[in-house]
From TrEMBL:
Family: Belongs to the LytR/CpsA/Psr (LCP) family.
Domain Cell envelope-related transcriptional attenuator: 114-259
Protein name: Transcriptional regulator
Keywords: Membrane, Transmembrane, Transmembrane helix
Top-level taxon: Bacteria
Gene3D superfamilies xrefs: LCP protein
Biased segments, Basic and acidic residues type: 1-21
Record-linked PANTHER family: POLYISOPRENYL-TEICHOIC ACID--PEPTIDOGLYCAN TEICHOIC ACID TRANSFERASE TAGU
A Pfam entry, by short name: LytR_cpsA_psr
Source species: Lapidilactobacillus concavus DSM 17758
Region Disordered, residue ranges: 1-32
Membrane spanning residue stretches: 39-59
């Protein structure tokens, strides 16, 4: 096990006193696809980036908004990014990697941070459909771009090499092209929620985490509460899958709160929160083009996820994506992008085959098994 994997596991133990390595792998749940009808801004802006463009026209703050968005720009591959404007102008389908990192949360000081939230947002204006595909943070995969061979939890890619390594690693895992990303650190989530005056959520079960108590039913949360609500994982019966859904709910509520009249009075505070805590390789003009040309894709929004199999890698609890599941997700995203389906053939499928040969049963996901990483 690499030192980065050990660090990742130790950093993410529950504050309630759980010993490192004691967490159990998540049992799989039935794959489900959920249709929603939120506005397209919820998908594209992950924390309000394009929404700010729309709001700016309404309150005559276009230049202030442009300045704030310009500060979020961080290129990772200029050659690939140069082609994005042509794609957007042609209104071709596009996928954007959405990352929620733990940078700045709970006193963490990593420059990039582990990506606790990984979502591939695929927007197709021609079919008027958007698909959000979540990748569980503990999914095992090859970390693409490291000096030495590294096969571990996919969320460590952003910690190891920033958005570029995260883009390349998720792209390799799912066999889909990924050029653009939007990333927000969890510490910034607290500031953004406070800037919009708090968010409203519907709590599905009572729990406590990080000093906050949540009761079943509708609640109005401040920034600290929203951060705790979005972070809790082990108390949730659905584990990381449940956390992903709560994080999507927070994002949706941020958008609704940001559009309120009361928020406009704190518009500059909101802009400052965005510019300090969001990073993306989408330019302001590209965001405007997406906002104008892709809004029809909001008519149908589907949520999906890579269904993992709970296992142990050494003492670490991980999720193993079966080759058939990777193929299903890859086919779905590639179809939405207008690309031909391709057989997924990567390091994950190789490791799956080697483990299957050694007795790992991918057809019996309810039994917790040990997953071995074989040298390249």
């Amino acid at each position: 096990m690499s030192e980065h994997a050990r660090t990742d596991r130790l950093q993410h133990q529950e504050a309630k006193g759980e010993e490192p390595g004691s967490q159990k792998p998540l049992k799989p749940i039935k794959q489900r696809t959920k249709k929603k009808k939120p506005i397209l801004k919820i998908i594209l802006l992950v924390l309000a980036a394009v929404l700010l463009v729309g709001a700016a026209y309404g309150v005559h703050l276009l230049q202030q908004t442009r300045n704030a968005i310009d500060k979020t720009y961080s290129s990772v591959d200029k050659a690939k990014e140069a082609k994005v404007s042509k794609v957007v102008v042609a209104k071709d389908p596009i996928s954007i990697l959405l990352l929620g990192t733990d940078t700045g949360a709970f006193g963490r000081k990593d420059v990039n941070g582990n990506s606790d939230t990984i979502i591939v947002a695929t927007i197709n204006p021609k079919t008027k459909r958007t698909t959000l595909t979540s990748v569980p943070r503990d999914t095992m995969g090859q970390i693409v771009g490291t000096t030495n061979y590294d096969f571990e939890k996919i969320n460590s890619a952003n910690l190891r090499g920033g958005p570029k390594m995260a883009l390349n690693s998720v792209s390799k895992l799912l066999n889909v092209p990924l050029t653009n990303y939007v990333s927000i650190n969890m510490g910034g989530l607290q500031q953004i929620v406070d800037a919009v005056g708090g968010v409203d959520v519907d709590v599905t079960f009572a729990f406590s985490y990080g000093g906050s108590t949540f009761t079943k039913g509708k609640m109005h949360l401040n920034g600290q509460q929203a951060l705790n609500y979005a972070r809790m994982r082990y108390t949730d019966p659905r584990g990381d899958y449940g956390r992903q859904e709560r994080q999507r709910d927070i994002i949706e509520s941020i958008i609704k709160s940001a559009a309120s009249t009361g928020t406009l009075a704190n518009f500059q505070k909101l802009l400052d929160s965005i510019s300090n805590n969001v990073r993306t390789n989408l330019t302001f003009d590209q965001m405007v083009a997406i906002f104008k040309g892709y809004r029809g894709a909001a008519k149908t929004v589907e949520s999906d996820h890579v269904q993992g199999i709970g296992a142990y890698w050494g003492k670490a609890a991980v999720q193993i994506a079966a080759t058939t599941e990777l193929q299903r997700v890859s086919d779905k995203i590639r179809t939405e992008l207008g690309l031909e389906k391709e057989t997924v053939n990567n390091e994950t499928t190789r490791q799956n085959q080697l483990n299957a040969t050694n007795g790992f049963n991918f057809k019996n996901p309810t039994t917790i098994q040990n997953f071995e990483v074989h040298a390249n």
